[in-house]
Amino acid sequence: MRWENLFGMVLVKNTNRIFKGIGASPGIVIGEARIADRSRVAIVEVTIDNAEIPAEIDRFKKSLLEAKEELKAIKEQISLAKGLEHLYVIDTHLLILEDSMLTNETVNFIASEKINAEAALKRTLKKFKEFFSGIEDEYLRERSEDVETVVERVLRNMVGKRHELLCEKDGRVIIVAHDLSPADILQIDKEKVIGFVTDLGGKTSHTAILSRSLEIPAVVGLEKITSEVSDGDSLIVDGRTGHVIISPDEETFREYLRNKQYYEYRERELLKLRDLPAETLDGYRIRLKGNVEFAEEIPSIKKHGGEGVGLYRTEMLFLNRMALPDEEEQFQAYSEASRQMAPYSITIRTLDVGGDKFVTDLNLDDELNPALGLRAIRLSLRQPDLFKTQLRAILRASAHGKVRLFFPMISGVAEIQKAKALLEEAKRELLDASIPFDEAIEVGIMIETPSAVIIADLLAREVDFFSVGTNDLIQYSLAIDRTNEHLSDLYEPLHPAVLRSLKMVADAAHAAGINVCICGEMASEPTYLPILLGLGYDELSMNAVSIPKVKKILRRCSRTEAVTLAAQVLKFSTAAEVESYLQSEITARYSDSID
Ligand code: PEP
Ligand code: MG
Hints:
- With 595 residues, the chain is an alpha/beta fold.
- The chain is 47% helix and 14% strand.
- The chain contains 23 helices and 18 strands.
- Helix 1 (53-82) packs antiparallel against helix 2, helix 12 packs parallel to helix 14 and helix 20 crosses helix 22 (559-569).
- It starts with a strand and ends in an 8-residue tail after the last helix.
């Protein structure tokens, strides 16, 4: 049985095929599928004569140049349509094209193996991929997809198969592709393309990050969606849950249409809070800020009413590459972020690698217990040159906007003193070179270890602010690996040990007269807001879309009641008891404000 729906799509009953991937960017879209041909070009390896080698090398180099020209043209088009802030992705691809290893390896393969240019380039790609696959860090592993995308563009030029542009698609469609590059996402005209789904991809790929910052609903990592969907199929994409439904039946369609309308209504309502102050009913003001990995995410913080960046995770700048970023490159990145967030401040965290994050150029050893190993500030203190380069870049950025800096994973006073001594050296070097910086730059630390909680009073004397990293604090306090999905039920933010720690840290900060913030995921959970408010936190920093959700609850709370509530939850002995108390006191009371 067929019937027409409101969108004029033809839905076929009983063909409701449901797939589950990774929700990369929230939002629900309903529309027509349009397959984008991003299939790999088939390459045949052909042996060539000695005499043909120079011509093959020329052909390869010419295709490289063509690919560069294409990317530059896209860059121009994007900078006109979407502004400069998204161009880093294209620049990354241009850098890959200019990488001498890509050229030299391919030329070597052509000359030494006597094979055609396409096959030689494929072999270079294989080598790159083998290298990347040995890397544990998910983010860096996903960068190999950038290399693959770039190589595919060159191969297409060599075989004369043009790269179809997504901006050429018309109608309001959902793109279905094996994979999409960040450059593809940047070309999307949101009037024409309302969402996308791909076989490949993970939550931290550039493609996923960009789709979130451009607010294009997307599901990635569906594995075989391209072989299930045909051009013109009706699709529902739920970017929150990662569900994709092909040819939905009437009931499913109606259900999702309702969900979509409700979701969009809620989002619109939440955005109305943007310019309203983040204050309680009794006039108590706190600051709600955003967490970012890239400056590109800052427009979304502004749109959601965030008052600054509370956590800039700088490691992404280091993970995305083979060689480390130099001082100038870091300075550019930090000052760009600061420029975009003006007049509000940005809070830059020094490098937090090691543990489960791996940086190629640092040649870190494998460790038996990486989470307890040479990580974060420990690594920075062992590599003072690397650390000072970053400190100088941050200091230089502080001359161009409001910049604060803080150190991750501090476990004792001696670490802060060493870090501050290196900061003083960096300042002196800049003074000697007459390079300007903010001499009164605020310096803080992350509270993420039980030792830091226990000696919070001693640490508070050393710094201008605390920021609690609850993701790690829960992991280290409860001895539960935050990445182990088999233990996720034991990872309890409301565990009395965590709540007592949060109280100790806030009390120690206030006794010393310094600011205290939370930048771990707990800050983004609206139901926890009254507890954090009652404990006295001055700032909460979270992903941009959570800001209005937290603000909404905040504006309905009274600070006095929150203090009473926080005192009450501290009396319980288990997380379950706290949870059920919150359920009756918060969830039930503010049910219209909590999803
Ligand atoms: C945290 O640990 O809570 C935190 C914000 O840092 P990250 O998640 O980057 O470790
Ligand atoms: Mg942390």
